[in-house]
Design a protein that fits this description.
By secondary structure, the chain is mostly beta strands. The protein is 9% helix and 40% strand. The protein has a five-stranded antiparallel β-sheet, covered by helices on one side. It has a three-stranded antiparallel β-sheet with strand order 1-2-3. The chain has a two-stranded antiparallel sheet with strand order 4-5. A hairpin with a 4-residue loop joins strand 1 (4-8) and strand 2.
């Protein structure tokens, strides 16, 4: 895997990018057959943008690519424990942003909804993407 720097206009600075590894086919692949661009520095600085300027795709696509690739260690993702709407298991879902969380067990991108009732905040799933 080759990590290389690239200028990101959204951050106005250098970010680290790589390509997803080509999967070994022993069954159903979890990644596409051809490598895809992944920004290893995707994070809060990307919030508020609809499109990732590096990939030219919706910003959430970059977040999901990074989560599915396994190239970012689990400790770096904020997590929330809740049932996944894809597999039904209660898991530590990786928080991609304010609206989405990723299930590392089944690869489902879950849409989250925060409900504020008086001084309490509750989180529920709105479905899968």
């Amino acid at each position: 895997m080759s990590i290389r720097p690239m200028h990101c206009p959204a951050c106005n600075g250098q970010v680290r990018i790589t390509d997803t590894p080509t999967p070994l086919h022993g069954g159903q692949p979890t990644l596409p057959d051809s490598p895809q661009l992944v920004c290893l520095d995707f994070g809060e600085q990307c919030a508020g943008r609809d499109v990732c300027p590096l990939a030219g795709l919706p910003r959430m696509v970059m977040a999901v690519r990074l989560a599915r690739s396994g190239l970012r260690s689990h400790e770096k993702w904020k997590t929330v424990q809740m049932p996944c709407s894809g597999c039904g298991q209660t898991m530590e879902l990786e928080v991609l942003d304010d609206e989405y969380a990723y299930c590392p067990a089944c690869g489902t991108t879950n849409r989250r909804v925060l409900i504020q009732v008086e001084d309490e905040t509750y989180m529920t799933l709105a479905g899968t993407e």
